[in-house]
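re the bet — no i am not wrong, look at it urself. input seq straight from the record:
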Amino acid sequence: MQPAKRVAVNTGILYAKMGITVFISLYATRLILAALGAEDYGIFNVVGGAIAMLTFLNIAMASASQRFMSYAQGEGDEQKQKYIFNVSVSLHFLVAIAVFLLLQVAGYFLFNGILEIPEERMDVAKLLYQFMLVSTFFTIVSVPYDAVINAHENMLLVAILGIIESVSKLAIAIYITYTAFDKLLTFGILMVSLPILLLVLRSIYCHRKYEEVELAPRKYYNRRLFKEMTSFASWKLLSSTASIVAMQGITIILNSFFGVIVNAAQGVANQVSGQLMAFSNTMLKALNPVIVKSEGEKNRTQMLKASMTGNKISFFLLSFFAIPVLIEMSFILNFWLKDVPDFAIVFCRLSLINAGIDQLTVTFSTAIGATGRIKKVSFWNSMVYIALLPASYLAFKLGASPEAIYVNLIGMTVVLSILRVLFTYHLCGLELGQFTSDLLVPCLSTTLATAIIAYTPTFFLDAGLVRLVVVVILNVLTFLTLLFLIGLKDEEKKLITSVYQAVVTRLRNKN
Protein backbone atom coordinates (compact mmCIF):
# COMPACT_ATOMS: atom_id res chain seq x y z
CA MET A 1 0.00 0.00 0.00
CA GLN A 2 1.33 3.47 -0.90
CA PRO A 3 2.41 5.64 2.06
CA ALA A 4 -0.33 8.24 1.50
CA LYS A 5 -3.12 5.66 1.35
CA ARG A 6 -1.63 3.71 4.28
CA VAL A 7 -1.67 6.89 6.35
CA ALA A 8 -5.27 7.54 5.26
CA VAL A 9 -6.43 4.04 6.24
CA ASN A 10 -4.68 4.18 9.63
CA THR A 11 -6.03 7.68 10.24
CA GLY A 12 -9.53 6.45 9.41
CA ILE A 13 -9.22 3.66 11.98
CA LEU A 14 -8.03 6.10 14.63
CA TYR A 15 -10.80 8.59 13.83
CA ALA A 16 -13.40 5.86 14.22
CA LYS A 17 -11.91 5.18 17.65
CA MET A 18 -11.86 8.87 18.47
CA GLY A 19 -15.51 9.27 17.46
CA ILE A 20 -16.30 6.85 20.27
CA THR A 21 -13.82 8.09 22.87
CA VAL A 22 -14.09 11.90 22.64
CA PHE A 23 -17.68 12.15 23.86
CA ILE A 24 -17.09 9.48 26.50
CA SER A 25 -14.07 11.41 27.81
CA LEU A 26 -15.89 14.75 27.87
CA TYR A 27 -18.87 13.26 29.72
CA ALA A 28 -16.53 11.48 32.15
CA THR A 29 -14.81 14.80 32.92
CA ARG A 30 -18.20 16.37 33.66
CA LEU A 31 -19.02 13.57 36.11
CA ILE A 32 -15.59 13.71 37.74
CA LEU A 33 -15.69 17.49 38.28
CA ALA A 34 -19.21 17.22 39.73
CA ALA A 35 -18.26 14.32 42.01
CA LEU A 36 -14.96 15.73 43.30
CA GLY A 37 -15.82 19.41 43.40
CA ALA A 38 -13.52 22.21 42.22
CA GLU A 39 -11.15 21.94 45.21
CA ASP A 40 -10.46 18.19 45.03
CA TYR A 41 -10.32 18.32 41.23
CA GLY A 42 -7.72 21.08 41.55
CA ILE A 43 -5.72 18.95 44.01
CA PHE A 44 -5.75 16.02 41.58
CA ASN A 45 -4.63 18.33 38.76
CA VAL A 46 -1.65 19.43 40.86
CA VAL A 47 -0.61 16.05 42.28
CA GLY A 48 -2.23 13.57 39.93
CA GLY A 49 -1.42 15.90 37.05
CA ALA A 50 2.04 14.41 37.23
CA ILE A 51 0.44 11.25 35.79
CA ALA A 52 -0.50 13.16 32.65
CA MET A 53 2.93 14.75 32.69
CA LEU A 54 4.62 11.35 32.75
CA THR A 55 2.29 10.03 30.07
CA PHE A 56 3.74 12.77 27.88
CA LEU A 57 7.22 11.62 28.90
CA ASN A 58 6.22 8.09 27.95
CA ILE A 59 5.14 9.25 24.48
CA ALA A 60 8.35 11.21 23.98
CA MET A 61 10.52 8.25 24.99
CA ALA A 62 8.48 5.88 22.83
CA SER A 63 9.10 8.16 19.87
CA ALA A 64 12.86 7.84 20.47
CA SER A 65 12.68 4.02 20.37
CA GLN A 66 10.20 4.15 17.50
CA ARG A 67 12.68 6.22 15.48
CA PHE A 68 15.19 3.35 15.50
CA MET A 69 12.49 0.72 14.91
CA SER A 70 10.96 2.58 11.95
CA TYR A 71 14.38 3.44 10.50
CA ALA A 72 15.41 -0.24 10.62
CA GLN A 73 12.14 -1.21 8.93
CA GLY A 74 12.88 1.35 6.22
CA GLU A 75 16.28 -0.31 5.78
CA GLY A 76 14.62 -3.74 5.67
CA ASP A 77 16.86 -5.14 8.45
CA GLU A 78 14.74 -7.57 10.54
CA GLN A 79 17.63 -8.86 12.70
CA LYS A 80 18.59 -5.33 13.68
CA GLN A 81 15.06 -4.79 15.02
CA LYS A 82 15.61 -7.54 17.63
CA TYR A 83 18.76 -5.80 18.84
CA ILE A 84 16.94 -2.45 18.95
CA PHE A 85 14.06 -3.89 21.00
CA ASN A 86 16.31 -5.52 23.61
CA VAL A 87 18.63 -2.53 23.91
CA SER A 88 15.52 -0.35 24.31
CA VAL A 89 14.20 -2.61 27.13
CA SER A 90 17.51 -2.40 29.02
CA LEU A 91 17.75 1.35 28.52
CA HIS A 92 14.24 2.06 29.73
CA PHE A 93 14.62 -0.18 32.78
CA LEU A 94 17.56 1.97 33.89
CA VAL A 95 15.61 5.17 33.14
CA ALA A 96 12.62 3.88 35.14
CA ILE A 97 14.77 3.32 38.25
CA ALA A 98 16.38 6.77 37.92
CA VAL A 99 13.04 8.55 37.47
CA PHE A 100 11.49 6.67 40.40
CA LEU A 101 14.29 7.74 42.75
CA LEU A 102 14.33 11.30 41.44
CA LEU A 103 10.59 11.71 41.95
CA GLN A 104 10.82 10.33 45.49
CA VAL A 105 13.29 13.11 46.33
CA ALA A 106 11.17 15.71 44.51
CA GLY A 107 8.09 14.58 46.46
CA TYR A 108 9.71 15.56 49.76
CA PHE A 109 10.13 19.16 48.63
CA LEU A 110 6.75 19.34 46.89
CA PHE A 111 4.84 18.41 50.04
CA ASN A 112 6.99 20.46 52.39
CA GLY A 113 6.57 24.08 51.44
CA ILE A 114 5.91 24.20 47.68
CA LEU A 115 2.38 22.90 47.05
CA GLU A 116 -0.58 24.81 48.50
CA ILE A 117 -2.91 21.98 49.52
CA PRO A 118 -5.48 22.18 52.34
CA GLU A 119 -4.10 20.49 55.45
CA GLU A 120 -7.03 18.07 55.76
CA ARG A 121 -6.32 16.73 52.23
CA MET A 122 -2.54 16.51 52.52
CA ASP A 123 -2.40 12.81 53.49
CA VAL A 124 -4.58 11.84 50.53
CA ALA A 125 -2.40 13.91 48.20
CA LYS A 126 0.75 12.14 49.44
CA LEU A 127 -0.84 8.72 48.90
CA LEU A 128 -1.82 9.72 45.37
CA TYR A 129 1.76 10.69 44.68
CA GLN A 130 3.12 7.29 45.79
CA PHE A 131 0.64 5.39 43.64
CA MET A 132 1.68 7.59 40.74
CA LEU A 133 5.34 6.62 41.23
CA VAL A 134 4.54 2.91 40.91
CA SER A 135 2.51 3.58 37.77
CA THR A 136 5.36 5.65 36.36
CA PHE A 137 7.88 2.84 36.78
CA PHE A 138 5.81 0.32 34.84
CA THR A 139 4.87 2.89 32.23
CA ILE A 140 8.50 3.65 31.40
CA VAL A 141 9.54 -0.03 31.37
CA SER A 142 6.79 -0.76 28.84
CA VAL A 143 7.81 2.02 26.41
CA PRO A 144 9.56 -0.39 23.96
CA TYR A 145 6.24 -2.16 23.36
CA ASP A 146 4.56 1.14 22.41
CA ALA A 147 7.45 1.78 20.02
CA VAL A 148 6.99 -1.60 18.32
CA ILE A 149 3.24 -1.08 17.87
CA ASN A 150 3.73 2.39 16.39
CA ALA A 151 6.58 1.28 14.12
CA HIS A 152 4.35 -1.46 12.72
CA GLU A 153 1.58 1.15 12.27
CA ASN A 154 -0.87 -1.18 14.06
CA MET A 155 -3.51 1.48 14.56
CA LEU A 156 -6.29 -1.08 15.00
CA LEU A 157 -4.72 -2.23 18.28
CA VAL A 158 -4.20 1.42 19.30
CA ALA A 159 -7.90 2.06 18.57
CA ILE A 160 -9.12 -0.97 20.55
CA LEU A 161 -6.98 -0.10 23.58
CA GLY A 162 -8.11 3.54 23.35
CA ILE A 163 -11.76 2.50 23.49
CA ILE A 164 -11.08 0.20 26.46
CA GLU A 165 -9.33 3.09 28.22
CA SER A 166 -12.19 5.56 27.62
CA VAL A 167 -14.91 3.14 28.71
CA SER A 168 -12.88 2.31 31.83
CA LYS A 169 -12.52 6.02 32.66
CA LEU A 170 -16.27 6.46 32.31
CA ALA A 171 -16.82 3.49 34.63
CA ILE A 172 -14.42 5.07 37.14
CA ALA A 173 -16.27 8.40 36.90
CA ILE A 174 -19.63 6.70 37.54
CA TYR A 175 -18.17 4.68 40.42
CA ILE A 176 -16.73 7.68 42.29
CA THR A 177 -20.04 9.52 41.86
CA TYR A 178 -21.75 6.96 44.10
CA THR A 179 -18.94 5.50 46.25
CA ALA A 180 -18.99 6.02 50.00
CA PHE A 181 -15.18 5.98 50.19
CA ASP A 182 -12.99 9.06 49.87
CA LYS A 183 -13.74 10.12 46.27
CA LEU A 184 -10.38 11.75 45.53
CA LEU A 185 -8.32 8.83 46.84
CA THR A 186 -10.51 6.27 45.07
CA PHE A 187 -10.32 8.22 41.81
CA GLY A 188 -6.54 8.52 42.04
CA ILE A 189 -5.96 4.81 42.75
CA LEU A 190 -8.20 3.68 39.90
CA MET A 191 -6.74 6.18 37.42
CA VAL A 192 -3.20 5.06 38.27
CA SER A 193 -4.10 1.36 37.96
CA LEU A 194 -5.63 1.75 34.49
CA PRO A 195 -2.43 2.50 32.51
CA ILE A 196 -0.67 -0.45 34.17
CA LEU A 197 -3.42 -2.80 32.97
CA LEU A 198 -3.29 -1.38 29.44
CA LEU A 199 0.48 -1.70 29.27
CA VAL A 200 0.30 -5.36 30.35
CA LEU A 201 -2.16 -6.01 27.50
CA ARG A 202 0.20 -4.30 25.03
CA SER A 203 3.20 -6.39 26.09
CA ILE A 204 1.28 -9.70 25.87
CA TYR A 205 0.06 -8.83 22.36
CA CYS A 206 3.53 -7.81 21.13
CA HIS A 207 5.20 -11.03 22.33
CA ARG A 208 2.62 -13.11 20.49
CA LYS A 209 2.41 -11.01 17.33
CA TYR A 210 5.88 -9.67 16.41
CA GLU A 211 9.01 -11.74 15.81
CA GLU A 212 11.43 -8.99 16.86
CA VAL A 213 9.81 -8.88 20.33
CA GLU A 214 12.04 -11.57 21.84
CA LEU A 215 13.12 -10.62 25.33
CA ALA A 216 16.78 -11.69 25.53
CA PRO A 217 18.92 -8.69 26.54
CA ARG A 218 22.18 -10.67 26.79
CA LYS A 219 21.75 -12.45 23.46
CA TYR A 220 20.87 -9.28 21.56
CA TYR A 221 23.15 -6.83 23.31
CA ASN A 222 25.13 -4.53 21.00
CA ARG A 223 27.46 -2.03 22.61
CA ARG A 224 27.61 0.36 19.64
CA LEU A 225 23.83 0.34 19.26
CA PHE A 226 23.36 0.82 23.01
CA LYS A 227 25.64 3.85 22.91
CA GLU A 228 23.87 5.29 19.87
CA MET A 229 20.38 4.78 21.31
CA THR A 230 21.46 6.06 24.71
CA SER A 231 22.83 9.24 23.16
CA PHE A 232 19.69 9.79 21.08
CA ALA A 233 17.33 8.95 23.97
CA SER A 234 19.31 11.15 26.37
CA TRP A 235 18.97 14.22 24.17
CA LYS A 236 15.33 13.38 23.50
CA LEU A 237 14.81 12.91 27.22
CA LEU A 238 16.48 16.23 27.97
CA SER A 239 14.05 18.26 25.89
CA SER A 240 11.08 16.13 26.99
CA THR A 241 12.01 16.46 30.66
CA ALA A 242 12.49 20.22 30.27
CA SER A 243 9.04 20.41 28.70
CA ILE A 244 7.53 18.36 31.52
CA VAL A 245 9.26 20.44 34.21
CA ALA A 246 7.96 23.60 32.54
CA MET A 247 4.37 22.34 32.24
CA GLN A 248 4.23 20.94 35.76
CA GLY A 249 6.16 23.98 37.01
CA ILE A 250 3.54 26.43 35.80
CA THR A 251 0.90 24.30 37.53
CA ILE A 252 2.81 24.63 40.80
CA ILE A 253 3.40 28.37 40.26
CA LEU A 254 -0.31 28.92 39.60
CA ASN A 255 -1.09 26.91 42.71
CA SER A 256 1.31 28.85 44.92
CA PHE A 257 -0.02 32.25 43.79
CA PHE A 258 -3.75 31.57 43.26
CA GLY A 259 -4.67 28.21 44.90
CA VAL A 260 -6.34 25.02 43.71
CA ILE A 261 -9.43 26.69 42.17
CA VAL A 262 -7.27 28.18 39.39
CA ASN A 263 -5.70 24.73 38.94
CA ALA A 264 -9.20 23.38 38.34
CA ALA A 265 -9.63 25.93 35.54
CA GLN A 266 -6.28 24.82 34.15
CA GLY A 267 -7.47 21.20 34.25
CA VAL A 268 -10.58 22.09 32.23
CA ALA A 269 -8.44 23.95 29.67
CA ASN A 270 -6.16 20.93 29.34
CA GLN A 271 -9.17 18.70 28.74
CA VAL A 272 -10.68 20.95 26.06
CA SER A 273 -7.44 21.52 24.14
CA GLY A 274 -6.47 17.86 24.53
CA GLN A 275 -9.74 16.62 23.05
CA LEU A 276 -9.65 19.06 20.12
CA MET A 277 -5.98 18.34 19.41
CA ALA A 278 -6.86 14.65 19.30
CA PHE A 279 -8.08 15.17 15.72
CA SER A 280 -4.68 16.34 14.51
CA ASN A 281 -2.64 14.14 16.87
CA THR A 282 -4.50 11.10 15.54
CA MET A 283 -3.36 11.85 12.01
CA LEU A 284 0.21 12.45 13.21
CA LYS A 285 0.30 9.08 14.96
CA ALA A 286 -0.31 7.45 11.58
CA LEU A 287 2.06 9.79 9.69
CA ASN A 288 5.16 9.86 11.91
CA PRO A 289 6.33 6.27 11.11
CA VAL A 290 6.11 7.09 7.39
CA ILE A 291 8.37 10.14 7.84
CA VAL A 292 11.04 8.09 9.65
CA LYS A 293 10.79 5.12 7.25
CA SER A 294 11.25 7.51 4.31
CA GLU A 295 14.50 8.72 5.86
CA GLY A 296 15.54 5.09 6.44
CA GLU A 297 14.93 4.46 2.72
CA LYS A 298 17.19 7.48 1.97
CA ASN A 299 14.22 9.27 0.37
CA ARG A 300 14.70 12.78 1.79
CA THR A 301 12.30 14.36 -0.75
CA GLN A 302 9.41 12.14 0.36
CA MET A 303 10.30 12.72 4.01
CA LEU A 304 10.12 16.52 3.65
CA LYS A 305 6.96 16.33 1.57
CA ALA A 306 5.27 14.17 4.22
CA SER A 307 6.41 16.59 6.95
CA MET A 308 5.05 19.68 5.16
CA THR A 309 1.74 18.00 4.37
CA GLY A 310 1.52 16.73 7.95
CA ASN A 311 1.94 20.24 9.38
CA LYS A 312 -0.72 21.65 7.09
CA ILE A 313 -3.32 18.95 7.64
CA SER A 314 -2.65 18.91 11.39
CA PHE A 315 -3.22 22.67 11.61
CA PHE A 316 -6.36 22.54 9.47
CA LEU A 317 -7.84 19.67 11.49
CA LEU A 318 -7.38 21.58 14.74
CA SER A 319 -8.60 24.89 13.26
CA PHE A 320 -11.75 23.36 11.78
CA PHE A 321 -12.99 22.28 15.20
CA ALA A 322 -11.36 25.01 17.28
CA ILE A 323 -12.88 28.08 15.52
CA PRO A 324 -16.52 27.56 16.64
CA VAL A 325 -15.33 26.43 20.09
CA LEU A 326 -13.25 29.61 20.51
CA ILE A 327 -16.21 31.77 19.51
CA GLU A 328 -18.78 29.99 21.69
CA MET A 329 -16.49 28.91 24.56
CA SER A 330 -18.62 30.52 27.27
CA PHE A 331 -21.85 28.82 26.17
CA ILE A 332 -20.15 25.45 25.60
CA LEU A 333 -18.48 25.34 29.03
CA ASN A 334 -21.65 26.42 30.85
CA PHE A 335 -23.60 23.77 28.94
CA TRP A 336 -20.96 21.06 29.52
CA LEU A 337 -20.11 21.68 33.19
CA LYS A 338 -22.41 22.30 36.13
CA ASP A 339 -20.01 24.80 37.70
CA VAL A 340 -17.42 26.47 35.46
CA PRO A 341 -14.25 27.31 37.46
CA ASP A 342 -13.06 30.92 37.39
CA PHE A 343 -10.67 31.70 34.50
CA ALA A 344 -11.62 28.45 32.69
CA ILE A 345 -13.04 30.28 29.65
CA VAL A 346 -10.02 32.50 29.00
CA PHE A 347 -7.62 29.62 29.79
CA CYS A 348 -9.37 27.42 27.22
CA ARG A 349 -9.25 30.08 24.50
CA LEU A 350 -5.58 30.90 25.01
CA SER A 351 -4.70 27.20 25.21
CA LEU A 352 -6.31 26.54 21.80
CA ILE A 353 -4.47 29.47 20.21
CA ASN A 354 -1.22 28.10 21.61
CA ALA A 355 -2.02 24.65 20.22
CA GLY A 356 -2.74 26.10 16.77
CA ILE A 357 0.64 27.81 16.60
CA ASP A 358 2.36 24.57 17.62
CA GLN A 359 0.63 22.55 14.87
CA LEU A 360 2.16 24.69 12.10
CA THR A 361 5.56 23.05 12.64
CA VAL A 362 4.72 19.96 14.69
CA THR A 363 6.00 17.28 12.25
CA PHE A 364 9.34 19.02 11.79
CA SER A 365 10.33 17.53 15.16
CA THR A 366 9.83 14.07 13.68
CA ALA A 367 11.78 15.03 10.54
CA ILE A 368 14.72 16.29 12.62
CA GLY A 369 14.59 13.18 14.80
CA ALA A 370 14.59 10.96 11.70
CA THR A 371 18.04 12.29 10.79
CA GLY A 372 19.35 11.30 14.24
CA ARG A 373 21.02 14.70 14.69
CA ILE A 374 19.07 16.09 17.63
CA LYS A 375 21.78 17.29 20.02
CA LYS A 376 21.63 21.01 19.26
CA VAL A 377 17.87 21.26 18.80
CA SER A 378 17.27 19.39 22.08
CA PHE A 379 19.61 21.74 23.93
CA TRP A 380 17.96 24.91 22.63
CA ASN A 381 14.45 23.54 23.12
CA SER A 382 15.32 22.78 26.74
CA MET A 383 16.57 26.32 27.33
CA VAL A 384 13.33 27.77 25.96
CA TYR A 385 11.16 25.46 28.08
CA ILE A 386 13.00 26.22 31.30
CA ALA A 387 12.92 29.99 30.63
CA LEU A 388 9.11 29.82 30.92
CA LEU A 389 9.27 29.28 34.68
CA PRO A 390 11.24 32.35 35.83
CA ALA A 391 9.34 34.50 33.31
CA SER A 392 5.99 33.35 34.73
CA TYR A 393 7.12 33.65 38.36
CA LEU A 394 8.37 37.18 37.76
CA ALA A 395 5.13 38.15 36.00
CA PHE A 396 3.02 37.02 38.97
CA LYS A 397 5.37 38.68 41.46
CA LEU A 398 4.77 41.93 39.59
CA GLY A 399 1.00 41.50 39.92
CA ALA A 400 -0.01 39.77 36.68
CA SER A 401 -3.35 37.95 36.57
CA PRO A 402 -3.53 34.11 36.08
CA GLU A 403 -4.07 34.27 32.29
CA ALA A 404 -0.54 35.67 31.93
CA ILE A 405 0.69 32.07 32.17
CA TYR A 406 -0.89 31.28 28.80
CA VAL A 407 0.44 34.46 27.21
CA ASN A 408 3.91 33.26 28.23
CA LEU A 409 3.12 29.80 26.84
CA ILE A 410 2.20 31.30 23.47
CA GLY A 411 5.47 33.24 23.38
CA MET A 412 7.38 30.06 24.18
CA THR A 413 5.60 28.14 21.42
CA VAL A 414 6.42 30.82 18.85
CA VAL A 415 10.13 30.59 19.72
CA LEU A 416 10.06 26.78 19.60
CA SER A 417 8.35 26.86 16.21
CA ILE A 418 11.03 29.17 14.81
CA LEU A 419 13.71 26.80 16.10
CA ARG A 420 12.01 23.83 14.40
CA VAL A 421 11.93 25.66 11.06
CA LEU A 422 15.58 26.72 11.29
CA PHE A 423 16.85 23.27 12.24
CA THR A 424 14.75 21.58 9.54
CA TYR A 425 16.30 24.04 7.09
CA HIS A 426 19.87 23.27 8.21
CA LEU A 427 19.54 19.50 8.76
CA CYS A 428 16.94 18.43 6.20
CA GLY A 429 17.17 21.00 3.42
CA LEU A 430 13.79 22.67 3.96
CA GLU A 431 13.19 25.59 1.57
CA LEU A 432 12.07 28.57 3.67
CA GLY A 433 10.30 30.26 0.77
CA GLN A 434 8.32 27.11 0.09
CA PHE A 435 7.45 26.78 3.79
CA THR A 436 6.06 30.33 3.78
CA SER A 437 4.16 30.17 0.49
CA ASP A 438 2.91 26.56 0.70
CA LEU A 439 2.14 26.37 4.41
CA LEU A 440 2.08 29.61 6.42
CA VAL A 441 0.16 31.80 3.97
CA PRO A 442 -2.63 29.32 3.06
CA CYS A 443 -3.03 28.10 6.66
CA LEU A 444 -3.28 31.54 8.28
CA SER A 445 -5.40 33.16 5.53
CA THR A 446 -7.89 30.28 5.47
CA THR A 447 -8.25 30.21 9.25
CA LEU A 448 -8.48 33.98 9.83
CA ALA A 449 -11.03 34.49 7.03
CA THR A 450 -13.16 31.62 8.36
CA ALA A 451 -12.98 32.95 11.93
CA ILE A 452 -14.12 36.43 10.86
CA ILE A 453 -17.12 35.09 8.93
CA ALA A 454 -18.08 32.57 11.64
CA TYR A 455 -17.93 35.32 14.29
CA THR A 456 -20.53 37.56 12.56
CA PRO A 457 -23.61 35.89 14.18
CA THR A 458 -22.45 37.16 17.59
CA PHE A 459 -23.36 40.71 16.50
CA PHE A 460 -27.07 40.00 15.99
CA LEU A 461 -27.87 36.77 17.92
CA ASP A 462 -27.91 36.18 21.68
CA ALA A 463 -25.73 33.42 23.11
CA GLY A 464 -27.48 30.07 22.99
CA LEU A 465 -27.99 26.86 21.05
CA VAL A 466 -29.35 28.63 17.97
CA ARG A 467 -26.31 30.89 17.67
CA LEU A 468 -23.97 27.93 18.23
CA VAL A 469 -25.62 26.04 15.37
CA VAL A 470 -25.40 29.08 13.05
CA VAL A 471 -21.71 29.58 13.93
CA VAL A 472 -20.95 25.90 13.27
CA ILE A 473 -22.75 25.93 9.89
CA LEU A 474 -20.95 29.10 8.78
CA ASN A 475 -17.63 27.63 9.94
CA VAL A 476 -18.13 24.38 8.01
CA LEU A 477 -19.25 26.03 4.77
CA THR A 478 -16.62 28.78 4.81
CA PHE A 479 -13.75 26.59 5.95
CA LEU A 480 -14.31 23.85 3.37
CA THR A 481 -14.76 26.39 0.57
CA LEU A 482 -11.59 28.31 1.43
CA LEU A 483 -9.71 25.06 2.06
CA PHE A 484 -10.15 23.97 -1.56
CA LEU A 485 -9.77 27.49 -2.99
CA ILE A 486 -6.61 28.66 -1.22
CA GLY A 487 -5.70 26.15 1.51
CA LEU A 488 -4.64 23.13 -0.53
CA LYS A 489 -2.34 22.73 -3.52
CA ASP A 490 -3.52 20.81 -6.58
CA GLU A 491 -1.54 17.68 -5.68
CA GLU A 492 -2.99 17.72 -2.14
CA LYS A 493 -6.52 17.97 -3.58
CA LYS A 494 -5.79 15.02 -5.87
CA LEU A 495 -4.47 13.02 -2.91
CA ILE A 496 -7.63 13.66 -0.87
CA THR A 497 -9.81 12.83 -3.89
CA SER A 498 -7.95 9.56 -4.56
CA VAL A 499 -8.16 8.50 -0.92
CA TYR A 500 -11.89 9.31 -0.86
CA GLN A 501 -12.45 7.28 -4.05
CA ALA A 502 -10.46 4.35 -2.65
CA VAL A 503 -12.58 4.33 0.54
CA VAL A 504 -15.86 4.55 -1.43
CA THR A 505 -14.75 1.73 -3.75
CA ARG A 506 -13.82 -0.48 -0.81
CA LEU A 507 -17.19 0.15 0.88
CA ARG A 508 -19.07 -0.63 -2.34
CA ASN A 509 -17.16 -3.87 -2.86
CA LYS A 510 -18.00 -4.99 0.68
CA ASN A 511 -21.68 -4.29 0.08
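see?? Residues 3-430 form one domain. told u. also DSSP finds 18 helices and no strands in the chain. so pay up
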